[in-house]
Amino acid sequence: MKNSHIAFIGAGNMANSLIRGLLAKSVPAAHLHATDIDPEKLLSLQTDCGIQIGSTAEVSANADVIILAVKPQVMAAVCEEVQHHIKKPGCLIISIAAGIPLKSLESWLGESRAIVRCMPNTPALVGEGATGLFANTHCSASNIALAGDILSAVGITCWLKAEQDIDIVTALSGSGPAYFFLMIEALEKAAISLGLDATVARQLSIQTALGAGKLAADSDVGPAELRRRVTSPGGTTEQALLSFQRDGFERIVANAVEAAQQRSAELAK
Ligand SMILES: NC(=O)c1ccc[n+]([C@@H]2O[C@H](COP(=O)([O-])OP(=O)(O)OC[C@H]3O[C@@H](n4cnc5c(N)ncnc54)[C@H](OP(=O)(O)O)[C@@H]3O)[C@@H](O)[C@H]2O)c1
């Protein structure tokens, strides 16, 4: 990865987090290139990170990897521009755009290009992202390793068995941060309505989410066992969990994830 020239088309939130993650992994700033239609955004990224900036033509020409980090609605036009400027044979393309299938990317970029489609999430901004990836049939083992290394700079990565799994990943980890924010908000509101100070309620809700996530990530047992360990028979947690169960908590979550998955599949059409 450290020898590859990586070009970002679109220098917004996700590109920023990936660039900062790659710099933190000691990828030289001289090997990172970016373009954006907003010259001010591009200049401030150059000032902050010391990376190379240029036009789409300039950054694409020298790239070993091109990361398409623009919004889905401009992806067709961006791909058609990019494909005229790719010079290196075997250049790997990585798309992070939601809802753009490989079939469309291949038709815009050329049928034989090595393309990886992936779905990161916003905790990538703090190096705690979760990304699902799927490669087309033109990707070599080294393309796959390189794409994995790049996305691993901002969190964990999981390779998927089928492209449609991206719709499930979108519903799980892509949209998932919002579900946890909603849980934090709901906990905070519940504690305030019981009389707790608002600042204390916010601090404790956020830290509890962080602590539970870290404990689950670091533990050698699954979340169900961790839940059992905090649930003493006849205790307070048991009362809360019974209340969740009575109100159909698992069904509520399953319905929400299914709704997001269906929407992701619709957008991909
Ligand atoms: N944010 C997320 O949670 C998330 C998660 C997973 C995947 N994604 C995907 O990641 C992609 C980028 O998302 P983001 O949140 O980083 O978006 P963003 O902050 O809006 O970044 C996209 C950037 O591309 C620029 N741009 C637009 N047209 C361009 C062109 N023709 N050439 C070069 N740059 C152009 C935009 O400029 P303007 O703002 O001036 O238009 C903007 O600076 C999207 O496809 C999204 O689906 C996002």
Characterise this structure.
By secondary structure, the protein is of the alpha/beta class. The chain has two domains: 6-163, NAD(P)-binding Rossmann-like Domain (Rossmann fold); 176-268, ProC C-terminal domain-like fold (Orthogonal Bundle), CATH 1.10.3730.10. Helix content is 55%, strand content 13%. The protein contains twelve helices and eight strands. The protein has an eight-stranded mixed beta sheet with strand order 3-2-1-4-5-6-7-8, sandwiched between helices. Helix 8 (176-193) packs across helix 9 (198-218). The model has no long low-confidence stretch (mean pLDDT 95).
Helix fraction by DSSP (H/I, runs of at least 4): 55-70%
Gap between N and C termini: 33 Å
Order of helices and strands: EHEHEHEHEHEEHEHHHHHH
> Mind telling me which CATH architecture of the largest domain this is?
3-Layer(aba) Sandwich
Q: How many strand segments?
A: 8
Structural class: alpha/beta
Number of helices: 12
**CATH homologous superfamily grouping of the largest domain:** NAD(P)-binding Rossmann-like Domain
Strand content: 5-15%
| Uncertain spans | none
Shape: elongated
Bound ligands, named by name, code or SMILES: NADP nicotinamide-adenine-dinucleotide phosphate
CATH topology call of the largest domain:
Rossmann fold
- The CATH class designation of the largest domain is Alpha Beta
Layout of strands and helices, then pairs:
Layout: E1 6-9, H1 13-24, E2 32-35, H2 39-49, E3 52-53, H3 56-61, E4 65-68, H4 75-85, E5 92-95, H5 102-109, E6 114-119, E7 129-135, H6 141-152, E8 155-159, H7 165-174, H8 176-193, H9 198-218, H10 223-230, H11 236-246, H12 249-268
Parallel strand pairs: 1-2, 1-4, 2-3, 4-5, 5-6, 7-8
Antiparallel strand pairs: 6-7
Helix pairs in contact: 4-5, 7-12, 8-9
The structure holds NADP nicotinamide-adenine-dinucleotide phosphate (NAP).
